[in-house]
Design a protein that fits this description.
single chain, 9-stranded antiparallel β-sheet
């Protein structure tokens, strides 16, 4: 049985969301491509995103900067106020671009890369931690009717 350690920042909301958002470590040679899906895991809801820009080896600094935009999404099932929900997704190039920075981490499977949210700081001309945390690799939407 695998034990998962949640930080204090992550100990809220749906356990499904907390588990899913922690499952996006990639091998170091994996290339993120424009069009790849992503998900913003909130309290218990989920919103879909699409990768819109990839900057490999940002200014020769050794890390990637990935731009993502929220998708438009429409529920297409007829299940009512159910947990069984199906959606169709459409990228929206008019939405705000949020950025993620690659980071190398040690895992039980070796060194992998993850993507953390960052914001550009014009005063310091660098990326600062913070922003919208989008988990790359899968695109999901979900609305929790219990709130």
């Amino acid at each position: 049985m695998q034990t998962i350690q949640l930080s204090k920042k992550q100990s809220y909301g749906s356990i499904n969301n907390r588990l899913s958002e922690s499952c996006s470590a990639f091998p170091l040679d994996y290339e993120i491509k424009v069009g790849l899906g992503g998900t913003d895991y909130m309290w218990s809801d989920r919103k879909p995103y699409t990768v819109c820009v990839v900057h490999n080896n940002w200014k020769n600094k050794g890390y990637e900067i990935i731009g993502v935009q929220a998708d438009d999404y429409k529920r297409i099932d007829t299940n009512g106020m159910s947990e069984d929900q199906d959606y169709e997704f459409t990228p929206n190039i008019e939405n705000t671009v949020h950025y993620l920075k690659s980071e190398k981490v040690q895992t039980k499977n070796g060194i992998m890369k993850i993507y953390q949210p960052v914001r550009w700081n014009n005063k310091t001309n660098r990326w600062n931690k913070g922003g919208t945390a989008v988990t790359l690799g899968h695109r999901k939407a979900y609305y929790d009717f219990s709130f």
